[in-house]
TrEMBL record:
<dbReference type="GO" id="GO:0009986">
    <property type="term" value="C:cell surface"/>
</dbReference>
<dbReference type="GO" id="GO:0001525">
    <property type="term" value="P:angiogenesis"/>
</dbReference>
<dbReference type="GO" id="GO:0005737">
    <property type="term" value="C:cytoplasm"/>
</dbReference>
<dbReference type="GO" id="GO:0005576">
    <property type="term" value="C:extracellular region"/>
</dbReference>
<keyword id="KW-0964">Secreted</keyword>
<dbReference type="GO" id="GO:0090050">
    <property type="term" value="P:positive regulation of cell migration involved in sprouting angiogenesis"/>
</dbReference>
<dbReference type="Pfam" id="PF00084">
    <property type="entry name" value="Sushi"/>
</dbReference>
<dbReference type="GO" id="GO:0051965">
    <property type="term" value="P:positive regulation of synapse assembly"/>
</dbReference>
<dbReference type="Pfam" id="PF13778">
    <property type="entry name" value="DUF4174"/>
</dbReference>
<feature type="disulfide bond">
    <location>
        <begin position="277"/>
        <end position="304"/>
    </location>
</feature>
<keyword id="KW-0732">Signal</keyword>
<dbReference type="InterPro" id="IPR043555">
    <property type="entry name" value="SRPX-like"/>
</dbReference>
<feature type="domain" description="HYR">
    <location>
        <begin position="163"/>
        <end position="246"/>
    </location>
</feature>
<feature type="domain" description="Sushi">
    <location>
        <begin position="106"/>
        <end position="164"/>
    </location>
</feature>
<keyword id="KW-0677">Repeat</keyword>
<dbReference type="InterPro" id="IPR003410">
    <property type="entry name" value="HYR_dom"/>
</dbReference>
<keyword id="KW-0768">Sushi</keyword>
């Protein structure tokens, strides 16, 4: 309130001097033309307003008054807005409010991009905007799938990650069937190794589990596996089968009084089986047969027939040719039939007859001197020309007992001047004349003579 004071001067008169004085400092007059405070004026201050907000006022005059002198107003912003300025203002005597305020729209900071993913937001980065995260193909969101801009201007939750969960892709070659080569039980199988792809990794190491390509596979089925891992250790695998077929002929039966020796596995495609006859028998027919691709044996089966020895031949070569590569010869010579060494040896030879046959040995006996000299193979008598040829060819004496062992090629292998027990004779034959295959067969038939 403004007061204006007016000085009223008083006049004083001094008698001695004739001076008159006026006193103007004692009386005051109050003027009444200044402004008056009126608490009842409803519009003392302008009516407050707040864009995107709300004003709540409390007046001394009651709820109906919003801008009278002394009114106090509380300022608040709508959701998504932040109050800038005074949160509370008062209507002053100067007809002004004690401060100003306004509502600013709130925003969250820009979300960073996530590797191998993206996001879309409903209202950008404003309050209440929801941003949904998605990942590229082959990746999956870890943790939450969305974030919301909250009222405080911060995002809810944490930033998600895109993890590689898609395993690599690998495709194996088709399974393979291959026929074994002739005479073999295996086949070489080839294929191109598979390639793997992955949504995340450009290069992958493919691991082979099992036998590799361009190698020989044995008969039957073999499982080949490939596996691959990406950098996130996701695994993929594939497999296929390599089957090797060995075409086989029916089992070839051995001939009566004989046996077979076969190459490879005996009856597989390309295998060859040779016919052999036991002692005292010879082969009639083909010497061998081959298993063909159509699973049939070539040729007709051979048979073993009793060996026919022509004893009436005129030359020693004609005699020996009958035994060439078929039989071994044991030539036993004595001065006469009464010679004790001959008799002892003859008894032992007769007892060892079965063992000699197993070892493919034929005994020739030469006895006496011309003109009564005889030679025989069992009951068959030899001609005098054949006897003389044997004695001259192998220098066999007529004057004392001796025994000569010839191999299948007619070579002189050993001479004995004393009778030999069957065990000693067989030991020598087994050690020096028999082939490995003959030894095996001998072991199989050793009990045959017991």
């Amino acid at each position: 309130m403004l007061l204006r004071f007016v000085a009223v001067f008083s006049l004083y008169v001094t008698a001695g001097s004739g001076t008159i004085e006026y006193d103007s400092y004692n009386d005051f007059v109050e003027e009444d033309d200044g402004p008056q405070l009126d608490y009842k004026d409803p519009h003392w201050c302008h009516s407050p307003g707040l864009t995107n907000g709300e004003v709540t006022c409390h007046s001394p005059q009651g709820r109906a008054y919003r801008s009278t002198l002394g009114t106090r107003c509380e300022m608040s912003c709508d959701r998504g807005y932040r109050l800038i300025g005074k949160g509370s203002i008062t209507c002053l005597p100067s007809r002004r409010w004690s401060g100003t305020s306004f509502c600013r729209k709130m925003r969250c900071h820009v979300l960073p991009l996530i590797p191998h993913g993206r996001y879309t937001c409903s209202h950008g980065f404003m309050v209440d905007s929801r941003c949904d995260f998605t990942c590229d193909a082959g990746y999956r969101i870890e943790e939450q799938h969305s974030r919301t801009c909250e009222r405080r201007g911060s995002w809810s939750g944490g930033q998600p990650n895109c993890e590689d969960t898609d395993p690599p892709k690998i495709k194996c070659p088709p399974s393979r069937l291959k026929v074994a080569e002739p005479g073999k039980l295996t086949a070489m199988v080839t294929w191109d190794p598979p390639k793997a792809t992955d949504t995340a990794d450009k290069s992958l190491d493919v691991i082979l589990v099992g036998q590799g390509p361009r190698t020989d596979f044995k008969e039957g089925a073999s499982i080949i596996r490939y596996k691959v891992y990406d950098q996130a250790r996701n695994r993929a695998a594939c497999k296929f089968i390599v089957r090797v077929e060995v075409r086989r002929c029916p089992t070839l039966p051995p001939p009566l009084q004989g046996f077979l020796t076969c190459s490879s596995d005996g009856n597989n495609y390309g295998a060859t089986c040779e016919y052999h006859c036991e002692g005292g028998y010879e082969r009639r027919g083909v010497s061998s047969r081959v298993c063909l691709f159509d699973r049939n044996w070539a040729g007709e089966p051979a048979e073993c027939v009793p060996m026919e020895i022509k004893s009436d031949v005129k030359t020693v070569s004609a005699l020996l040719e009958q035994f060439y590569e078929k039989r071994r010869l044991l030539i036993m010579s004595g001065p006469n039939i009464t010679d004790p060494d001959y008799q002892l040896q003859n008894i032992m030879i007769q007892k060892a007859d079965c063992g000699l046959d197993l070892r493919r040995v034929t005994v020739i006996e030469l006895l006496g001197s011309p003109p009564r000299e005889t030679g025989r193979i069992k009951e068959s008598l030899l001609s005098s020309e054949a006897i003389e040829g044997l004695r001259l060819s192998f220098r066999i004496s007529r004057s004392y007992f001796s025994m000569l062992l010839l191999d299948e090629l007619g070579m002189d292998r050993e001479r004995f001047i004393y009778p030999m027990a069957s065990d000693e004779l067989f030991s020598y034959i087994d050690s020096f004349l028999l082939e490995e295959e003959e030894r095996e067969r001998l072991e199989l038939h050793r009990d045959f003579c017991d």
